[in-house]
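Structure first, sequence second, as always.
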């Protein structure tokens, strides 16, 4: 994409209802719209523009048509929001939100979300409405809260991070979709069959957690695992029956020992009924810092999925809470999720 500033579209409020309040509360809003996320495309984007016009907010539009085009628009929008004292807004799914995290954390600007993805875990976890009009109202009249963000080797995540089976499952599913079409059940079945035929990678875990006196304790664990899942989303963890880390400086890890295909199926059933935490093949624990290294194969990097986006990172992998919290715009009420620093 060329210089993002050449594509900026300014819109002044057409509504006279509380225009000053809309501008002073969180605006102006610098909106990066990933129209490829979810369904609806341009029609949904035009509906969103209409909601913003009716809200009385001042908006600067920074369009992006594909996920790979998000970096430059987000960079420009974050810089402009910081200079104007405004808010960086992402229209998209959890992956698009993840792309904005480094810039929001670095610049210190509030991050606003218009959910437009498939699962929208971030929005649901913080009770941000999925309906466009209500989501815009949250941006205009909501409040920023401090949210702890996980990171691995400096790469932040707001929903989860994983390595082992899950990143490979995501890639195999995309390959199957390209080959066999958008039949989700077929693509998932083919990718799962391919996954079970592969060799399981062994990782070593070095867990560190603060004691009651504030001293860091080392508790090394070595095991053969198929997947390591690091959760930050309380919604996801509750759904599968895993307790969320209570301390603000901690994350929750879920390690899956190497199971047979039959036991893997059983674990899937347990997860469906929210009983994964009781499974003998599952080890879950809170931590402040988790160091993960690959055993035996000594490759330069391993695949890690961050909020559903797969990338390669060099070992050892260091999971921890980011030093600075994210300022996230949420509904202005005393609801679960406030002050999650």
């Amino acid at each position: 994409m060329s210089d993002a500033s050449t594509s900026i579209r300014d819109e002044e409020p057409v509504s006279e209802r509380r225009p000053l309040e809309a501008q002073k509360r969180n605006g102006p809003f610098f909106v990066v719209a990933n129209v490829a996320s979810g369904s609806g495309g341009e029609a949904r984007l035009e509906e969103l523009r209409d909601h913003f016009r009716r809200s009385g907010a001042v908006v600067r539009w920074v369009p992006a048509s594909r996920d790979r085009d998000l970096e430059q628009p987000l960079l420009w929008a974050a810089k402009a929001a910081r200079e104007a004292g405004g808010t960086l807004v992402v229209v998209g799914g959890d992956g698009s939100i993840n792309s904005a995290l480094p810039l929001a954390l670095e610049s210190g600007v509030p991050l606003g979300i218009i959910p437009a993805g498939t699962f929208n875990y971030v929005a649901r976890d913080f009770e941000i409405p999925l309906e466009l009009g209500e989501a815009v109202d949250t941006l205009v009249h909501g409040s920023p809260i401090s949210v702890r963000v996980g990171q691995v080797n400096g790469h932040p995540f707001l929903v989860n991070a994983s390595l082992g089976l899950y990143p490979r499952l995501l890639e195999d599913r995309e390959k199957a979709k390209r080959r066999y079409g958008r039949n989700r059940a077929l693509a998932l079945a083919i990718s799962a069959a391919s996954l079970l035929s592969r060799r399981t990678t062994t990782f070593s875990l070095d867990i560190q957690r603060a004691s009651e006196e504030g001293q860091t304790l080392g508790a090394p664990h070595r095991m053969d695992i198929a997947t390591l899942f690091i959760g930050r989303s309380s919604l996801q963890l509750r759904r599968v029956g895993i307790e969320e880390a209570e301390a603000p400086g901690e994350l929750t890890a879920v390690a899956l020992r190497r199971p047979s295909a039959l036991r893997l199926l059983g674990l899937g059933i347990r997860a469906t009924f929210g009983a994964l935490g009781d499974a003998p093949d599952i080890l879950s624990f809170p931590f402040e810092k988790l160091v993960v290294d690959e055993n035996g194969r000594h490759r330069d990097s391993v695949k890690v999925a961050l909020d559903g986006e797969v990338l390669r990172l060099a070992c050892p992998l260091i999971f921890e809470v980011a030093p600075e919290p994210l300022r996230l715009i949420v509904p202005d009420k005393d609801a679960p999720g406030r002050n999650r620093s």
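Margin note: The CA atoms of residues 83 and 147 lie 23 Å apart.
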